[in-house]
C-alpha cells in the first residue's frame, strides 16, 4: 500500500484509560500535540462519561477531536483537521481499537503512563499514515462497500437457492403423497369392483332361484290339471 507524502489530515492518535485518566500510548503526526492537553481532555467529566462504542467529537484549537470508548474503559482518540470526514474517523478508531486491544489489551489496563507508546509505535504510525491519505482511504471504503454489496447479493442468492430447494422438497413430498393416494384409490377401486361382482353374482343366483321356483310352480299346476283331465 502506497503511503505517499503527508497530507495534513491526521494530527494525533492515542489510547488512554478513563478510569485514571492515563494516556497509555500516543502518536503525533503532521504536528506536535501537547500530551498534557490530551490528558486534561481525558479528565473532563463529559469525556469520562462517553457511551461505549459511540463515536463522539468536538472542535478545539482548530482541530476535531474524535473519541470512542470501549467496555473496558479504554478510550481511543484521534485529532484531525476540521473538514475530516466522519466515516474515515470512525473507521480509523475502529481499526485502532481492534488492533490495539488484540495486541496490547491486557497490558493497557495496568501499564504506566505512555508505557505502550514505544511498543505500539509501528501500529499507531501506520494508521496515521493510512488515514492521513483520504484518497486511498476512500478507495478502500469503496472496495469494502462493493465487497459488502457482493456478499449481500450472494446471501440473497443462497437464500433463494435454499427456498427453491425447500419448494422442490415440498413438490417431491406432494408427489409422493399423491402416489400413495393413487395407490390407495386403485386398491379401493379393486375392492369395490370385487364387491360389486359378488353382489351381481348374488343377484343372478337369487333371480335364478326365483325363476326356478316359478317354473316349478307352473309345471306343478300344469301337471295337476293334466292329471285331473285324465281322471274325467
Automatic annotation (TrEMBL):
Keywords: Coiled coil, Membrane, Protein transport, Transmembrane, Transmembrane helix, Transport. One of its GO terms (cellular component) is membrane. One of its GO terms (biological process) is vesicle-mediated transport. It comes from the Eukaryota. Residues 139-199 form the V-SNARE coiled-coil homology domain. Pfam families: Synaptobrevin (PF00957). SUPFAM superfamilies: SNARE fusion complex, SNARE-like. The keyword Methyltransferase does not apply. The chain crosses the membrane at residues 205-226. This is V-SNARE coiled-coil homology domain-containing protein.
Amino acid at each position: 500500500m502506497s503511503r505517499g507524502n503527508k497530507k495534513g489530515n491526521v494530527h494525533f492518535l492515542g489510547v488512554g484509560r478513563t478510569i485514571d485518566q492515563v494516556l497509555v500510548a500516543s502518536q503525533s503526526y503532521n504536528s506536535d500535540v501537547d500530551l498534557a492537553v490530551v490528558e486534561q481532555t481525558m479528565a473532563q467529566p463529559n469525556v469520562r462519561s462517553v457511551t461505549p462504542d459511540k463515536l463522539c467529537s468536538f472542535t478545539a484549537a482548530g482541530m476535531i477531536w474524535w473519541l470512542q470508548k470501549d467496555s473496558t474503559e479504554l478510550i481511543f482518540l484521534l485529532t484531525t483537521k476540521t473538514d475530516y470526514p466522519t466515516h474515515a474517523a470512525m473507521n480509523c478508531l475502529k481499526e485502532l481499537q481492534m488492533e490495539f486491544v488484540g495486541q496490547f489489551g491486557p497490558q493497557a489496563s495496568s501499564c504506566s503512563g505512555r508505557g505502550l507508546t514505544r511498543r505500539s509505535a509501528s501500529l499507531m504510525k501506520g494508521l496515521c499514515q493510512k488515514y492521513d491519505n483520504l484518497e486511498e482511504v476512500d478507495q478502500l471504503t469503496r472496495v469494502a462497500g462493493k465487497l459488502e454489496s457482493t456478499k449481500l447479493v450472494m446471501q440473497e442468492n443462497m437464500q433463494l437457492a435454499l427456498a427453491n430447494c425447500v419448494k422442490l422438497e415440498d413438490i417431491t413430498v406432494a408427489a409422493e403423497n399423491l402416489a400413495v393416494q393413487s395407490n390407495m384409490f386403485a386398491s379401493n377401486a379393486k375392492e369395490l369392483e370385487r364387491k360389486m361382482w359378488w353382489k351381481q353374482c348374488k343377484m343372478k343366483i337369487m333371480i335364478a332361484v326365483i325363476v326356478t321356483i316359478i317354473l316349478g310352480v307352473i309345471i306343478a299346476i300344469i301337471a295337476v290339471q293334466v292329471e285331473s283331465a285324465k281322471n274325467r
